[in-house]
Amino acid sequence: VALAYLEGLSHSEIAAQLGLPLGTVKSRMRIAYQKVRAALEDLK
Amino acid sequence: MTITHHLDDATLMSFAAGSLPTTLAAVAAAHASMCPHCRKELSLLERIGGVLVAGLLPADMTRAEPPAVPADGPEALPARGLAGEIPAPLGDLVGDGLDHVRWRWIGPGLWHRPLQVRGAGSLHLIKAAPGASVPEHTHGGSELTLVLRGALIDSTGRYMPGDVSDLDEDMEHTPVADTQAGCICVIANEQPTRFRGLLARLLQPWHGL
Lengths: 44, 209
Known about the structure:
- The structure holds two protein chains of two kinds.
- Chain A is mainly α.
- Chain A is built from three helices and no strands.
- In chain A, helix 2 crosses helix 3 (22-43).
- Chain B is of the alpha+beta class.
- Chain B is built from six helices and eleven strands.
- In chain B, helix 1 (9-17) packs across helix 3 (36-54) and helix 2 (22-34) crosses helix 3.
- Chain B starts with 8 loop residues before the first helix and ends with a helix.
- The model of chain B is unreliable at 69-83 (pLDDT under 50).
- Classes of the chains: A mainly alpha, B alpha+beta.
- The A-B interface holds A 1-2, 4-12, 21-23, 25-27, 29-30, 32-34, 36-37, 40 and B 8-14, 17-21, 44-45, 48-49, 52-53, 56, 141-142, 168-170, 190-191.
């Protein structure tokens, strides 16, 4: 998430930098967003 | 218009962060302009990004150079819109409407029109006759397909105007146009399509997909 938001890297660039498959990067982004969204729901 | 296929959460995050490649961003922007659900998600993701940036330590700017403007930044995307089937972010790219596109025949029941956008990847309009299919293929990276007219069917579902198919390199599919209405869609690819069939691969430099 930091690499996307703060470094401006695309999913493919993040995958290359971390040595991960593109699908794994996207999956981790999804999980991060779901956690943040759940946390925000708890605050409401 | 009822939209049932949306942008993937990971794509929305990258779009909100400004890190989605330009060609994919053009299709994401077009879908978001038609989809209240994705606009709402983007609004939340932009606020999350704001919180992340606000948490950065302040930098010493006293000797900083002016920031460089990226070659494929947001200015590469046109802003003019057209009424009807073409979402505003694609207005300047598509021109006078889907009925006035200068199509090029690329195979049985398939026509193609490349759209010029700066940045990595490719952006195409594809027209498929009723029942026509794109040969079985996978993708070298992310692929976004937005249906503009008719309908498109593959193993993941049926896509109507406004619906977006958001795929990555793991997905192999053979999209087929609706047998009554055919289909016109705009497709953004991060990398060239990987066709399984020898003929489609041999013709790839010519058809350009």
